[in-house]
Design goal:
- By secondary structure, this protein is of the alpha+beta class.
- It contains 2 helices and 3 strands; from the N terminus they run ααβββ.
- A 3-stranded antiparallel sheet has the order 1-2-3.
- Strand 2 and strand 3 form a beta hairpin.
- The longest helix is centred in the first third of the chain and has 12 residues.
Length: 81
């Protein structure tokens, strides 16, 4: 279910998409410096009738021509799975 805190988590990354690199480094996760970040469509529906959405999807372009996709899902409570 969508809530204000859920949306706020995603708006932070959508409005400042370079923030994830800083967040990763703060957590001790190595991540190369991005040269460009693009907000992408979050509708992941396939041709067959199965609807899939991700909360935020970013395309990250790195120096050297490499590119990554970062899918961000906010969880309002712990998921034991």
């Amino acid at each position: 279910m969508v809530s204000s805190p859920h949306e706020a988590h995603h708006r932070i990354f959508q409005e400042n998409p370079g923030l994830f690199a800083s967040a990763f480094r703060t957590l001790g996760i190595p991540f190369p410096e991005p040269v460009a970040v693009s907000l992408m469509d979050t509708d992941l529906t396939e041709i067959r009738p199965l609807e899939r959405h991700v909360d935020t999807l970013l395309r990250i372009e790195l120096a050297g021509g490499d590119c990554l996709l970062l899918a961000i899902e906010a969880q309002g409570k712990k998921d034991p799975d």
